Amino acid sequence: MQEINIPISDDTIHGLKVGDPVMLNGIMLTGRDTVHKWMIDTFIRKTREPQGDDLKVYEAIKPLLNKSVIYHCGPVVSGLDTRHYEFVAAGPTTSIREEPYQAEVMSHFNIKGVIGKGGMGPKTLQGCKDTPGVYLHAIGGAASYIAQRVTRVLEVFKLEFGVPEAMWVIEVKDFPVVVTMDAKGQSLHAVIQERSSKVLQELLVK
Amino acid sequence: MHDITENILELIRRTSTDLPSDVEKHLRTSIENEEPGSAARGALETILKNVTLARKNATPICQDTGTPIFYVHYPEGMSTRKLKEQIRAAIAEATKRSYMRPNAVDVLTEKNSGNNLGGESFPYIHFEEVEGDELTIELMLKGGGCENVGAQYSLPDSRLGAGRDLAGIRKVVLDAVQKAQGQGCAPGILGVSFGGDRGAGYLASKEVLFDKMDEGNSDPRLAALEKQLTDEANQMGIGPMGFGGKTTVLNTKITGLHRLPASYFVSVSYMCWAYRRRKMTIHGNKVTFD
C-alpha cells in the first residue's frame, strides 16, 4: 500500500488513480458544513464581513491547508474541560453536502486532498482536475479505528461552531483511505451511480 | 421508584459502543460474499475491526452518535416526568464521558448546546404505559448520514410506475436504495412503513428497526417482500460504502399502518451498518440488558 506524506506534491497527486488504497501521514485539518460555508461567505465569495477572530484564523489556516488535506469529520473529543484534547471517535461525515463549496475551497487554499465518505459530484471532480487534488474515501462509521490513527491534536479553531463543526488540526499516522476521485477526472462514484441506475431500470420493469 | 440515571447511562454506553450481536453476525457473513482484495471487502474488514475496538475500549462505534431515540414502556403509576428527567441527566453525563458527541444544534442560532439536550424534542422520548410491573427502555442512536437518505413516496408514483400495492412499494423502496448509494454508510438496513400519514409513516419506519434482524415478519406476504427487497437491492452493485460489491443492504423490515382513503405513503428509514439499538429491562431491583 502506498504511503503519502503531507504536504503533498502535484506529482504525487498526478500519480494517484481511482481504486488506489493509501496511508496518509502528517498534519491535516477537519472541516465540515459550517466551516465550508464560513470560508466561502467570508473569504472566497465575500458576502459576509469578517468578524471576531475570523481574519486571524484565516491567516493561521492558510499555511496549514496549503498542499494539505481537509477531512470532513465531526469528531468525539475528550479533554474539553482541560484542553488536553484527544480524538475518541473520528470517522468521516457525508461529503456531498460540501459539493456547492468544495472546488472553490480547494482552489483558494491549494488543498490537495479531501477526505470524506459517499463521494462528491461533478463540480468537485472538476476541482480535483484544476487544483489538482484527489477525493479520498475513509470508511464511514469506523470511528474508533480511525481515532487511533490520530496521534496528536495540535490546535482547534472556531470551537464556538461546536465540537463537530470546529476546525481541528490533527497529526495522523497510517490513516487509511481509498482514492475514489482522481485528478484525471475519474470518479468511482459516477461509475457506481450509472451502473446501479441501469440495474434499477431493469428491476422496475420486472 | 428509585433513581435509575446510572442504569440509563449504562444503556447509552452499551448502545453507543457495543454493536448488537445480530448486526455483527450479518456483517461477518457478508464478508464472504465480497472478492478477496476488493475495496468492498476491505471496507467490511475495517468495519469489523472497528466494532471490536469500540467494544473493547468503550468508545463510540461511530462519531455521529446520532439522534437518541428512547422508547419507554412503563408500568402503571410510574412517573414519566421523573423518568424524563433521569433520561436527560444520563444523556448529559454520557456526553461528558464521550459516549456521545454533542449533537443538539439550535436551528436558528446554530449554537450547539454541548450536552445533547435541546428543547423538548432532543433527545426524542416516547412513553407507553404497559401492563405488569416491568419497565423497559429501548434506545436507538441513528446518525445523520443515514437519516438524510431516508425517503417518503406518495403512491401512485407515475415516474416509477408504482401503484398502490406491494409491487408499487417494491419499486419505490428500490429507488430509495439506488438514490442513497453509499451515502447512508452501506451496507444498510431498511425500515419501511406503508400507510399512515406522513408523520406516523416515518415514525413507524424507525420503530420497526427496533426488531431483531432475524425475527421474521409474521405476515407471509410482507416476509416475502422483505427478502425480495434485500436480494434485489444487492443486485444493484452499490456495495459497502458505495465502493461496488454485493453487500448493499443487510436486511429489510416492513410494517403497515391504516391510511386515509386518499393517501398511500411509503416511508423509508435507512439505517447505517452501525445499527445501534439496545434494550434495558428493570424488574424490581433487577436490571438486565439485551
Q: What sort of overall outline of chain B do the alpha carbons produce when their principal axes are compared?
A: globular
Highest CATH level, the class of chain A: Alpha Beta
Structural class of chain B: alpha+beta
Reading side by side through the largest sheet of chain A, how are the strands ordered? 2-3-6-7-9
* Total E-strand runs of chain A: 9
Give me the CATH fold name of chain A.
fumarase
The radius of gyration computed from the alpha-carbon positions of chain A, rounded to a whole number of angstroms, is 17 Å
Output the structural class of chain A. Answer: alpha/beta
If classified by CATH, what would the architecture of chain A be? Alpha-Beta Barrel
Beta-strand content bin of chain B = 15-25%
Strand fraction of chain A equals 25-35%
Order of strands, widest sheet of chain B: 2-1-3-8-9
Helical run tally of chain B:
8
Largest interface: A-B, 51 and 54 residues
**Largest sheet data of chain B:** 5 strands, mixed
- Strand runs of chain B, count: 9
- Helix coverage percent of chain B: 25-40%
SSE arrangement of chain A, N to C: EHEHHEEEHEHEHEEH
Task: Describe, in plain words, how this protein is organized in 3D.
- The complex is a heterodimer of chains A (206) and B (290).
- Chain A has helices at 10-14, 33-44, 54-65, 102-109, 122-130, 143-147, 188-204; strands at 2-5, 21-30, 69-71, 76-78, 86-89, 113-116, 134-137, 150-157, 167-181.
- Chain A contains seven helices and nine strands; from the N terminus they run E-H-E-H-H-E-E-E-H-E-H-E-H-E-E-H.
- Chain B is an alpha+beta fold.
- In chain B, 37% of the residues lie in helices and 22% in strands.
- Chain B has eight helices and nine strands.
- Chain B has helices at 5-17, 21-31, 39-57, 80-96, 144-148, 166-180, 198-207, 220-235; strands spanning 67-75, 124-130, 134-142, 151-154, 188-194, 249-256, 265-271, 276-283, 286-289.
- In chain B, the strands form two sheets. In chain B, strands 2-1-3-8-9 form a five-stranded mixed sheet. A four-stranded mixed sheet of chain B has the order 4-7-5-6.
- In chain B, strand 8 and strand 9 form a beta hairpin.
- In chain B, helix 2 (21-31) packs antiparallel against helix 3.
- The model of chain B has no long low-confidence stretch (mean pLDDT 97).
- Chains A and B meet through strand 4, helix 6, strand 9 and helix 7 of A and helix 3, helix 5 and helix 6 of B.
